[in-house]
Amino acid sequence: MNVHKRLVVVIMDLLLLAELTLCMYLSAPHGKAMAAVFLKTYVPMASATGAVAWILLRRLGKVALEPRGEH
Fold it and tell me: What is the pLDDT of residues 53-69, one digit of tens each?
């Protein structure tokens, strides 16, 4: 795995942890509805983060597969 792919994975992991923390914080005051509020906020955010990371990783993979021109 090249450096750019590793960087995307590390950033994605940090974003997911930050999203998890934020969603727990936002859903805590809702008492019995905490689970529903958490899922309504976390699932879309985590899905978007995962989708963007997947797209970036695929793009970086295609760039690595392209042959380099000889000069």
Answer: 999 999 988 776 666 66
- Could you tell me the two tokens for 39? 């899922």
pLDDT score recorded for residue 61: 83
Residues 6+ apart with CB under 8 A from 30: 36, 37
User: CA 56, CA 48: separation in Å to the nearest integer?
Assistant: 12
- CA-to-CA distance for 8 and 3, rounded, in angstroms? 9
37 burial (CB, 10 Å; 0-12 / 13-18 / 19+) is middle
Answering whether pTM is above 0.85, one says no
